[in-house]
């Protein structure tokens, strides 16, 4: 008889339960249970469309900004589908990318040092890991300092982080001075310093040209990424946690990543091919159902009928970055590679942020009013955005500016949703075969679990 | 050493994320003074169910119980292991010296309390303006304080750390009528707003994307009607919504987010439905009328063009 054990997971965003079915010392099946539900999509119904700019960031305390950008884009798309061209000044586009970049970097820093590294403290009692101990450890504290420092960039343009609604259809609300820009740049520079010294052990631009694992290990000095790679190898996590080896990214970001679908070969992404399946979800097309076989508030998301991983690793693959294409050849989409991609993105985004800040022209506009009052607009809109954990999709239907229906598909829904009749979710698949509970938890955490986003 | 236990109900985790941004003291400095018994985002050896058991057996003492997120007793919509957050609160409520509601969800219910399919979502002691939260209106903890509300969506980290520090040092914390620390929430975002001169001279923003103009009359700013020191204790110690050009949405108030059209000011015959706190409508009309006649030329041009 297989043994079934349920665990409540902490060190994730929100609450996740994991039901593991064991056989012969290995995980035979895994159920990822997202037990909490606030009902944002229901709350939004009947509200003025622009109010979604205030409500939606509050879906998530850690990537609320991504929800803001997706909401803004969905409303802008609503205008476009109604035949009204909406001008978004280049300055506004740049600032949205800068602040999104800052939020993603914040997430990756906190995720790596606060959520991931403590797993290794459970795996091995080594004095070398003392610096990573929560609250007391020097490196844990540094991660708090620098993750809090990078979000100051969002505060410069948006007033605060978390939870601002400064991006609006037509642009952004701010009108920064040259000195706001130099301050933002200085913040980025100081985080670059931290990343070079502690995370990568080498100059960021040199790191970005690295194309293989051997090259990285050879060129970098003592670094946290290096330590992480060695620990993965020591505990056989370099080959564990493989999923479907299919990757999805829904939008571009200059200097950072490009959109696409990779299933053996890379293709374009079409939002029409995205479907949600509710056969194992409490939330169904016809209301709530708590039937016995249903086990999560999340729905299963499929692209062209298939489950896809969406994550920084997907972004690396869809951007055809050499280092990760080489890593995949050897390790496939394993725990180690998935984690490395998140850490890698810190460097890529810091580099991009510097370019974007350079490109802003303070004398040019940051906002151009939309061509009509939202109260005159009816139709549908889609907002696509890459968030820290992967692809985020907002879809709305409005009638004279009032929301009739709102649908949100978060990265965590793609990765950690329940199964459908045919397939497990990417994370459920990745956990299968794990040989200990802690490793099963670690593999799940490699998807950067966010339960508040999963169910919203 | 005093102890702190942090639990989460229906929440976005934003107050925890906000608290990580704390400066003076920094997040990790607070927890050098207080022992953190458990926090869902940081604890790696402990588990909450075991801790609750130990608290029941009086093996662990709780000084500060912090609640983040709204409360519900309906396990279909929220549970932690086998418990609902309501059950955990029930077990712990008489065992903590202080209970602190961290953020607007725990204080007043906030967005989760507007979910139409579960009417059993509330704050710890309030549901919006009513004292109809999870605990009865006359509930007090062992220290004699009711639930101390530190609202805000999210709360500012300093509001939390300064409250904790004061209580830790045995100082008296005066609360306002919504159980918010008075010395923080007696300020308005209007106080210290860089657009105040525009407010005084009735120069109103018509659209976003400008440093100039007051956001009150056209763009829905709640700065003059909201209790919060956002422009005294700056966000991320660097800015605030109104400084960046975003209208205040009143997220520290008991009625957030019940209002609609956040980026619009409701008016009757050109007069805002709500006028700044402490001013009568008649006084508002008079003073704005006068201000409009006595133009301030400096405020008629872009800031870069002023002398």
Automatic annotation (TrEMBL), chain A:
The protein's required cofactor(s) are namely:
Ni(2+)
Q: Where are the transmembrane segments?
A: none
Question: Which compartments is it annotated to reside in?
Answer: Cell envelope
User: Where this protein primarily resides, as one coarse class?
Assistant: other
**InterPro entries from the entry?**
Ni-dep_hyd_lsu, Ni-dep_hyd_lsu_Ni_BS, NiFe-Hase_large, NiFe/NiFeSe_hydrgnase_LSU
Q: Sorted alphabetically, which keywords does the UniProt record give?
A: Metal-binding, Nickel, Oxidoreductase
User: Which protein family is named in the record?
Assistant: Belongs to the [NiFe]/[NiFeSe] hydrogenase large subunit family.
| Protein name, as recorded | Nickel-dependent hydrogenase large subunit
UniProtKB/TrEMBL annotation, chain B:
**Ranges in a coiled coil:** none
Domain Cytochrome-c3 hydrogenase C-terminal residues, every copy = 187-263
Tell me where in this chain the NADH:ubiquinone oxidoreductase-like 20kDa subunit domain is found.
12-167
Query: What Pfam family is a match for this entry?
Result: NiFe_hyd_SSU_C
Write down the required cofactor(s). Answer: [4Fe-4S] cluster
The record, for InterPro entries, names: Cytochrome-c3_hydrogenase_C, NADH_UbQ_OxRdtase-like_20kDa, NiFe-Hase_small_C_sf, NiFe_Hase_small_N_sf, NiFe_hydrogenase_ssu
Record's keyword annotation contains Signal: yes
Keyword entries, A-Z: 4Fe-4S, Iron, Iron-sulfur, Metal-binding, Oxidoreductase, Signal
What subcellular compartments does it reside in? Cell envelope
Q: What is its main location?
A: other
The answer on whether this UniProt entry bears the keyword Iron reads: yes
What family does the database annotate? Belongs to the [NiFe]/[NiFeSe] hydrogenase small subunit family.
The record describes its quaternary structure and partners as: Heterodimer of a large and a small subunit.
> What is the protein name given in its UniProt record?
Ni/Fe hydrogenase
Source organism per entry reads Persephonella atlantica
Source taxonomy lineage? Answer: Bacteria, Pseudomonadati, Aquificota, Aquificia, Aquificales
């Amino acid at each position: 008889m297989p043994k079934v054990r349920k665990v409540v997971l902490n060190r994730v965003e929100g609450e996740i339960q994991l039901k593991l079915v064991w056989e012969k010392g290995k995980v035979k099946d895994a159920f990822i249970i997202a037990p909490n539900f606030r009902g944002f999509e229901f709350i939004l119904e009947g509200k003025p469309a622009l109010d979604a700019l205030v409500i939606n960031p509050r879906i998530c305390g850690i990537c609320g900004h991504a929800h803001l950008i997706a909401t803004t884009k969905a409303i802008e798309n609503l205008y476009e589908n109604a035949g009204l061209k909406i001008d978004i000044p280049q300055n506004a586009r740049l600032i949205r990318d800068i602040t999104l970049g800052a939020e993603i970097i914040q997430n990756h820093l906190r995720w790596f040092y606060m959520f991931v590294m403590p797993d290794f403290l459970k795996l091995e009692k080594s004095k070398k890991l003392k610096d990573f101990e929560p609250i007391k450890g020097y490196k844990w504290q540094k991660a708090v300092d620098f993750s809090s420092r990078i979000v100051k960039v969002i505060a410069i343009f948006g007033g605060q982080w978390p939870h601002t609604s400064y991006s609006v259809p037509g642009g952004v609300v701010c009108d920064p001075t040259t000195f706001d820009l130099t301050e933002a740049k200085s913040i980025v520079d100081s985080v670059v310093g931290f990343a070079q010294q502690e995370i990568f052990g080498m100059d960021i631009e040199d790191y970005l040209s690295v194309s293989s694992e051997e090259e990285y290990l050879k060129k970098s000095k003592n670094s946290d990424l290096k330590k992480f790679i060695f620990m993965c190898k020591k505990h056989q996590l370099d080959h564990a946690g493989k999923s479907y080896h299919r990757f999805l990214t829904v939008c571009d970001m200059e200097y950072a990543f490009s959109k696409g679908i990779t299933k053996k070969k890379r293709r374009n992404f079409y939002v029409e091919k995205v479907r949600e399946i509710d056969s194992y979800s409490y939330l169904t097309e016809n209301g709530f159902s708590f039937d016995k076989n249903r086990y999560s508030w999340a729905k299963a998301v499929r692209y062209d009928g298939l489950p896809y991983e969406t994550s920084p690793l997907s972004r690396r693959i869809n951007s055809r970055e050499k280092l990760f294409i080489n890593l995949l050849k050897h390790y496939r989409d394993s725990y180690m590679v998935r984690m490395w991609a998140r850490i890698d993105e810190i460097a890529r985004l810091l580099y991009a942020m510097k370019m974007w800040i350079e490109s802003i022209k303070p004398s040019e506009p940051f906002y151009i009013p939309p061509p009509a009052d939202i109260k005159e607009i009816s139709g549908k809109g889609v907002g696509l955005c890459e968030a820290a954990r992967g692809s985020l999709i907002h879809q709305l239907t409005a009638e004279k500016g009032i929301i009739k229906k709102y649908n949100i598909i978060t990265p965590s829904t793609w990765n950690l949703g329940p199964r459908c009749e045919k397939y497990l979710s990417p994370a459920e698949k990745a956990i299968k075969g794990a040989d200990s509970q802690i490793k099963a938890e670690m593999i799940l955490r490699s998807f950067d679990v966010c339960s508040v986003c999963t169910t919203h | 050493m005093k102890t702190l236990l942090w639990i989460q109900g229906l929440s976005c985790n934003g107050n925890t994320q906000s608290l990580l941004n704390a400066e003076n003291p920094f997040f990790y400095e607070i927890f050098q003074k207080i022992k953190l018994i458990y926090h869902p985002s940081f604890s790696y050896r402990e588990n909450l169910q075991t801790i609750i058991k130990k608290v029941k057996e009086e093996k662990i003492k709780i000084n500060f119980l912090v609640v983040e997120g709204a409360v519900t007793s309906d396990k279909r919509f929220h549970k932690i292991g086998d418990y609902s957050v309501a059950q955990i609160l029930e077990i712990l409520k008489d065992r903590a010296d202080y209970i602190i509601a961290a953020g607007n969800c725990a204080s007043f219910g906030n967005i989760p309390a507007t979910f139409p399919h579960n009417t059993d979502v509330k704050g710890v002691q309030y549901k919006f303006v009513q004292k109809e939260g999870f605990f009865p209106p006359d509930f007090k903890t062992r220290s004699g304080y009711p639930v101390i509300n530190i609202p805000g969506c999210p709360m500012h980290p300093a509001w939390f750390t300064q409250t904790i520090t004061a209580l830790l040092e045995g100082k008296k914390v005066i609360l306002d009528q919504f159980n918010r620390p008075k010395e923080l929430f007696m300020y308005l975002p209007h106080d210290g707003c860089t657009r105040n001169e525009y407010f005084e001279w009735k120069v109103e923003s018509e659209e976003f994307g400008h440093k100039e103009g007051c956001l009150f009359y056209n763009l829905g700013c709640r700065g003059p009607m909201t209790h919060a020191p956002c422009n005294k204790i700056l966000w991320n110690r660097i800015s605030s919504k109104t400084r960046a050009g975003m209208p205040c949405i009143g997220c520290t108030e008991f009625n957030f987010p019940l209002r609609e059209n956040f980026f619009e000011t409701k008016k009757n015959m050109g007069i805002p439905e709500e006028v700044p706190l402490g001013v009568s409508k008649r006084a508002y009309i008079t003073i704005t009328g006068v201000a409009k006649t006595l133009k301030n030329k400096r405020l008629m041009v872009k800031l870069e063009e002023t002398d």
